[in-house]
Amino acid sequence: MSRISIIGVTQTYGDVRALDDVSLDIGDQEFITLLGPSGCGKTTLLRAVAGFIRPQSGTITMDAVDITRQPAHQRSINMVFQRPTLFPHLNVTGNIAFGLKLESPRLSKREIAERVNEALLLVRLEGYENRRAHELSGGQMQRVALARALVKRPSVLLLDEPLSALDLKIRLEMEGELRRVHRETKATFIYVTHDQREALALSDRIAVFENGRVSQLGTPTEIYHRPANPFVASFVGDSNVIPVEISSRSFMLGGKRIAIDTDIKGPAWLVVRPEKVRLLGGDVGIPAEVSDLAFRGTGFAYELRIPGVDSVVKAESPAGGESWSIGSSVNVEIEPADCLALVRT
User: Fold this and answer.
1) pLDDT digits 0-9 by tens, 227-246
2) Around Cβ 223, how many Cβ atoms within 10 Å?
3) What are phi and psi of 224, to 5 degrees?
4) CB within 8 A of 258, min separation 6: which ones?
5) What number does CATH give the domain 239-343?
6) pLDDT for 51-108, tens place per residue?
7) Residue whose C-alpha is closest to residue 147's, from 109, 99, 210
8) Of 202, 199, 177, 92, residue with least CA distance to 137
9) Distance in angstroms (rounded) separating the CA atoms of residues 274 and 238
10) Whole-model pTM?
11) Could you give the CA distance from residue 136 to residue 92 in angstroms, rounded to a whole number?
12) Which of 38, 134, 211, 227 is geometrically suited to a Cys-Cys bond with 233, CB 3.0 to 4.6 A?
């Protein structure tokens, strides 16, 4: 088992509160992602779990054992960094075996070779054993770093933005590989990223961080469709967050009254995803004007101006359907089921 409990962890650097009384339970064999903008505390928490920093207050336990003050090398935890930093004088086999030889001196050469071969197969690098770092692509180097961490068979693997330096195509390939490796190793993965799409694609659960605190914890579906506050709604994916006044389970938008299923009354934030904003011709719906557009391959992304709404409203429509140009008059339709209301204070 490798269940981790983070209880009331706080870490400050001068006047900056990097972690502010963070509590989080991470299940055995879970793939959890710590998601948030730069400086929100996610990497600080990862380093505390790794043992690289000792939090000023709070407790970290692993399988009910307090590891808060345990040195990093005594924890059954390994880490994959943003950049793989391979040894240039060693080939792939030497890089993967390096830590194993240092920390497991009682293993025979045959046992080390077997473990290295297992790791090579796991990250699909068989045939690359004798290549050196300069002979590998960025994605291959990151696979070597992953194999180097997994060869020691840690209970918990920490991954600090390991795909951020790769181009999009390789990132997409590596995402699939990470999910497969997670299933096959049955280790607990704690993953840090600021890439919302990456977090949604990889995770069993996501912890969204804001200013050193967990702003919301949930499954990717919960985080995307039911954000707990305007920050999560705006940060995870793309959302329209519009101030409205709710009365009698409805609100006014662009001179039209729209129904919404909520018990909130008074000031609220209307949250609706762009793909749920339908654009129509004719004169049915909320009147709007196209102020900008962009082709996204699978369709068009529009920015709209609606009378009485200060901010632009975003909408998406699939390729092949009706399209509009800048300056076009359109009508907007939003289904009540696609509207989420959050209290506005």
Assistant:
1) 999 999 999 988 999 999 99
2) 28
3) -75, -45
4) 250, 251, 252, 286, 334, 336, 339
5) 2.40.50.140
6) 999 999 999 999 999 999 999 989 999 999 888 889 999 999 999 998 888 776 678 8
7) 99
8) 92
9) 7
10) 0.90
11) 9
12) 227
pLDDT in tens, 246-303: 999 999 999 999 999 999 999 999 999 999 999 998 788 999 999 999 998 889 999 9
Distance CA 345, CA 186 (A): 44
What are the domain boundaries of the chain? 4-230, 239-343
Q: Hunting for tokens 């089921």 — which residue is that?
A: 337
Tokens of 89: 């004088």
pLDDT at 301: 95
* Tokens at 236, concatenated: 């995870």
Per residue, the 3-state secondary structure of the chain, as one string, reads CCCEEEEEEEEEECCEEEEEEEEEEECCCCEEEEECCCCCCHHHHHHHHHCCCCCCEEEEEECCEECCCCCHHHCCEEEECCCCCCCCCCEHHHHHHHHHHHHCCCCCHHHHHHHHHHHHHHCCCCCCCCCEHHHCCHHHHHHHHHHHHHCCCCCEEEEECCCCCCCHHHHHHHHHHHHHHHHHHCCEEEEEECCHHHHHHHCCEEEEEECCEEEEEECHHHHHHCCCCHHHHHHCCCCEEEEEEEECCEEEECCEEEECCCCCCEEEEEEECHHHCEEECCCCCEEEEEEEEEECCCEEEEEEECCCCCCCEEEEEECCCCCCCCCCEEEEECCHHHCEEEECC
CATH number of the 4-230 domain? 3.40.50.300
Beta bridge partners of 210: 213
Note whether 242 and 309 are within 8 A (CB): yes
Q: Using an 8 Å Cβ cutoff, are 221 and 234 in contact?
A: no
